[in-house]
Amino acid sequence: MFTALGGSLEFLVFEPRDFVAQGDKVVVLGYYEARVKSTGKTYSSEWVMAWTIDNGQVVKFREYADTAAELAAFKP
């Protein structure tokens, strides 16, 4: 997943701001700004990433962000 992101995006800002952990869950709140390599357009979003960890391995990952802004940046 992260390799694919690196191939299409250049992150200008990536700021994890708050971390909340309970049991096997970790939730991170943050902000990023990115440039789409194919279009040169930039976008920004606050985001939430939710991770579930089992035995030291990530078993579930969800991200919530402004996908409309991201989609617009990918359009030529």
Question: Care to describe what's here?
Answer:
- The protein has 76 residues and is of the alpha+beta class.
- It has helices spanning 2-8, 67-74, and strands at 9-22, 25-36, 42-54, 57-64.
- A 4-stranded antiparallel β-sheet has the order 1-2-3-4.
- The longest helix has 8 residues, at 67-74.
- The protein is elongated and about 45 Å long.
Kindly summarize this structure in a few lines.
The protein is α+β, with helices and mostly antiparallel strands and 76 residues long.
Question: What order do the helices and strands come in, and which of them pair?
Answer:
Elements: H1 2-8, E1 9-22, E2 25-36, E3 42-54, E4 57-64, H2 67-74
Antiparallel strand pairs: 1-2, 2-3, 3-4
What helical percentage do the residues reach? 10-25%
Task: Report the strand count.
Answer: 4
Q: Number of DSSP helices?
A: 2
Q: What gap, in angstroms, lies between the N and C termini? A: 23 Å
Q: Strand content of the residues, in percent?
A: over 45%
- The geometry reads as elongated
- What order do the SSEs take from the amino end to the carboxyl end, as H and E? HEEEEH
What is the mean pLDDT? 94
Question: How would you classify the helix and strand content by structural class?
Answer: alpha+beta
For the record, the CATH architecture stands as: Roll
Low-confidence stretches: none
Per the CATH scheme, the topology name is Nuclear Transport Factor 2, Chain: A
Radius of gyration: 14 Å
